[in-house]
Every structure is written in C-alpha cells, then in structure tokens.
Structure to design on (302 residues):
C-alpha cells in the first residue's frame, strides 16, 4: 500500500510520454548559445529537444556523467544565491508565503492543530497512510530509480532526464531542509509542545520546522509538473497528491501548519530552480560591428 502513490506517479509519467514524444519528433540540434547561468557554470550542452511541438522551451538530455555530478554544486549555488537576483514579482510571491506563514504561526497554528486532531477518523488515517510515502525519501529513491531505469532500458532521454532531476532535487532539498531543521529546533505537536516552542540547535534535535514531508512531496511534484506541464492533468494530479501529503502530516500530529507551508514553498522553489538550470534558452544574436583597415582605406561591416 505504501508504494501505491509512487506507482501512480510513474503511471502518470508513462501516460504523459506520448505527448512529450511529440517534441517535434525529437528535435536534436546543436545549440551554440545557452542560458547565462548554464554558461557560467561551464556545463556541457549536448543535443537538445523541444519539450512540446508548440513550446519555446528547450531541454538538453541529462545523463549520469561528470557534468551531471558537477551540476549539483552549480545548481545548489544558484538556489542559495537566487534571492539576491529576485525581481519585484519574486519578492511579492515570497512575501505572500512568508506573510501567511507568519500569520498562521501567530494566530492559527494551535487552532489548526487542535481542529485536525478533533476531526481524525479512520478515513483520514487511511488517506494519510496512502499518501505519506510521497514525502518519505526512502520511497522517492525508488521513484527516481524506476524512472531512470525506464529511460536506460528503453533508450528514452526524457525519462532518464526526469529520473535524474528527481534525484538531484531530493538531495539538494534534503540538505538545505536538514540544515534549517537542525538550526531551528522547533518542537513538534506530538511532543506536547505549544506552537511557539523552539529549542534551537541541540541533541537530540527537534525537527518540526520546516516540514520535510511537505518539502519532499512538493519537490517531486514540481519536477514532474514542470517536465510534463503540456499535459494538463499531470500538474493538477501531482500538486494535489503533494497537498494531501501535507495534510497527512497534520492528521499525524507531526507538524504545525506554518511548517507545512514553508516546507512546501521551499520544495517548489528549489526544484523549479533546478529544472530551469537544465533548460537551454537560445539567445538572440547581437549584431556585430567591425572596423577594418586596408590598403584601400577603412571598411565598416555589420
């Protein structure tokens, strides 16, 4: 039963593949220009394929090679430094998330926790048990491995890419999430704590903030939703399952609502950044002006 949502997501990926396969009949063309981030990172850019026939986005195949291993460092650096390059709309989104989380922390966390426990039932327990694996790293290694293995066995660059991106997003999310958890030391509801109890760094540590399950579930959902966004059902189902995973943690009395909100936002933001790092964006060629001198005089060329 624990593996069922993992199999469901794998089924979604397989169903989405026929649409993704219409990527202009696997357009494989050499790309001379890449995104600034990718170029700065020194990543090797192999052939590319269009994500859908009517899409301007291009991706390059991700393979289990040295450039892929190096991308962990470059992509982590980009994730950490990205806020310094945010524009007004990005700060607005972050402000909304943090604002709602702050309001929940101040006024609603305790009430939501009490409500969730008062309304637990055999039905909510069953649903929670089904979706819980989507936030459990053990099962997501299986997801990543199965998707990657499909790509290797059937020579499918798309599923190879998705499997490796799931793995990368889980590892980077896991490291960043654990660092914050250990530093924050927020006590869980099941510890009998109130919503405002923080212990800070200590051993044994308290791991309530942010929610690892929420971060992991939304990291997985974001990779799948971004890679198959042209298939409308995939993002809807992926994010719905991730949301149910968050609610399962309320049902289990494992987290406060603000833990879940921040964890989900982190998983989404980090994974979306990673996926974008592996997109190729052809740049418009700038006009070249050249002044040359010869026997007959100077020549200006454009």
């Amino acid at each position: 039963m624990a593996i069922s949502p993992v199999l469901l997501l794998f089924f979604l990926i397989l169903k989405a593949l026929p649409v993704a396969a219409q990527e202009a009949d696997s357009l494989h063309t050499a790309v001379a220009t890449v995104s600034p981030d990718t170029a700065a990172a020194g990543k090797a850019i192999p052939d590319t394929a269009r994500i859908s026939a009517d899409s301007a986005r291009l991706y390059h195949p991700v393979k289990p090679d040295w450039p892929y291993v190096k991308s962990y460092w470059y992509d982590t650096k980009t994730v950490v430094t990205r806020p310094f390059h945010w524009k007004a709309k990005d700060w607005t989104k972050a402000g909304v998330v943090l604002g709602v989380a702050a309001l929940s922390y101040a006024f609603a966390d305790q009430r939501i926790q009490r409500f969730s426990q008062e309304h637990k039932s055999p039905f909510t327990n069953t649903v929670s048990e089904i979706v819980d694996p989507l936030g459990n790293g053990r099962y997501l290694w299986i997801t990543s491995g199965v998707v990657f293995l499909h790509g290797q066995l059937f020579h499918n660059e798309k599923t190879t890419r998705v499997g490796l991106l799931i793995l990368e997003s889980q590892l980077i999310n896991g490291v960043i999430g654990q660092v914050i958890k250990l530093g924050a030391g927020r006590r869980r509801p099941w510890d009998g704590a109130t919503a405002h109890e923080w212990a800070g760094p200590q051993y044994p540590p308290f791991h309530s903030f942010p929610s690892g399950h929420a971060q992991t579930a939304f990291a997985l959902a974001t990779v799948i939703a971004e890679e198959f966004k042209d298939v409308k059902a995939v993002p809807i189902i992926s994010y719905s399952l991730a949301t149910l995973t968050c609610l399962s943690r309320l049902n289990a009395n494992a987290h406060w609502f603000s833990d879940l909100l921040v964890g989900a936002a982190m998983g989404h933001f980090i994974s979306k950044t990673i996926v974008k790092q592996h997109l190729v964006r052809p740049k418009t060629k700038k006009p070249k002006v050249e002044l040359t001198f010869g026997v007959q005089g100077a020549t200006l060329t454009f």
Observations:
- The chain is about 60% helix and 5% strand.
- The beta strands are 49-50, 58-59, 279-280, 290-294, 297-301.
